[in-house]
Amino acid sequence: MKINKKAIFSISASLVSILVGLILGLILLFVFDSSRALVGFEALIGTGISTAEKFAKVLYQAAPLILTGLSVAFAFKTGLFNIGASGQYTIGAFCALFAATVLGTPWYISLLLAMIGGALWGILPGLFKAHFNVNEVITCIMLNWTGLFLVNLLIRNIPQMIQNYWAGSITNRTVKLALVEKFYGVQTTIPKAGLDTLFGGSSYMNISIFIAIAVSIIVYVVLNKTTFGYEIKACGYNKNASTYAGINAKKNIVLSMVIAGGIAGLAGGIYFLSGTAEYVIEKSLLAMGFNGIPVALLAASNPIGVIFSSLFISYIQVGGEALQRYQFSSEIINIIISAIIYLSAFSFLIRLFIEKIFSKKHREEEIKIEKEQKGGAK
């Protein structure tokens, strides 16, 4: 079996980024409180698997992270930076919740509508980029805020999406989906399929993680085993060359953003149809969409790698929450993640460094073998 050296070097670069980030986190813990540093670091590393409930939370948070990471990674493959995943995620969340609370649709129809909503929000920067060469970062940032305030406006003016309509106590949040299910007689939340029992009765567990993994595998197959995937990557490598080769670059740019938006929209649907999370009307962008950026960077935009990088980010986030028990600020975990993200942005340089070391060692071995062969010939 042929070993993919490029994949090995990419994985090594990501692991180096993670290791250095964790070492920096340990140093920070010593700086803030040396007496509790080791026990705090142990909590950071071990909390995610300490109980079934904690591990369930890791998987619960990882599911939407996988999808937002995929959204960013897929756009990266076309040479686009989908910083608009937050807006697409928010629109997807609204579409899913609107379908569940107002239309009373089953969970799978709600998720489909979430994908459609995210895709429609993603097509806009794609069209502007393809036909007017407007930088997608600018349009995505504008659409993030437009999407957030549009969703807030709609929710405030749709009675069924406010809790007090369903005898809830908090008027600025969306409805408890359990009450909706009882009213419509359909399952609006994502099924747990017995996973809650398997994980000690955890309210976090449902089949979302399997949906996210399945989408990752599908995206991997599309990118690596289909003509469309080849065209997408060709546009990312060199748009002009792909056009010269007969590939419709404009169409692929638009389709790439549509698919990226649909995946981000699905992430919003999965998170808010869990039966645990509630959409809160806020004036700040939802972080989950932006968290997909470090996930994609850490995975080097590999759809399978996105699964593992999402699990890692979710894992240390759960561990970071445990730091507060030892009088450490929860912001420390954000610093650690930021360090890992910063290093992952330089993962290409780290990979080149590893390749250089490997190549040098390999060349030395070849020279040694050549000298031995010449000596034997004499």
Brief summary of the model shown:
The protein has 16 helices and no strands.
Helix and strand arrangement:
Layout: H1 5-32, H2 37-46, H3 52-77, H4 85-103, H5 107-132, H6 136-156, H7 177-184, H8 195-198, H9 208-225, H10 227-237, H11 239-244, H12 249-272, H13 287-298, H14 303-322, H15 331-345, H16 347-377
Helix pairs in contact: 1-2, 1-15, 1-16, 2-14, 3-9, 3-12, 3-13, 3-14, 4-5, 4-6, 4-12, 4-13, 5-6, 5-12, 9-10, 9-14, 10-12, 13-14, 13-15, 14-15
Summary keywords:
16 helices, 378 residues, mainly alpha, 74% helix, single chain
Please describe what this structure looks like:
The protein is mainly alpha-helical and 378 residues long. The protein is 74% helix and 0% strand. It has helices at 5-32, 37-46, 52-77, 85-103, 107-132, 136-156, 177-184, 195-198, 208-225, 227-237, 239-244, 249-272, 287-298, 303-322, 331-345, 347-377. The longest helix is centred in the last third of the chain and has 31 residues, at 347-377. The radius of gyration is 23 Å and the shape is globular. The model is unreliable at 169-174 (pLDDT under 50).
- Tell me the radius of gyration: 23 Å
| Major β-sheet annotation | none
SSE string: HHHHHHHHHHHHHHHH
Rough outline: globular
Please give the alpha-carbon distance between the first and last residues.
36 Å
Which parts are unreliable, with pLDDT below 50 for 5 consecutive residues or more? 169-174
Structural class computed from helices and strand pairing: mainly alpha
Q: Tally the beta strands.
A: 0
Helix count equals: 16
Average pLDDT rating: 85
Fraction of helical residues: over 70%
Residue fraction in strands: under 5%
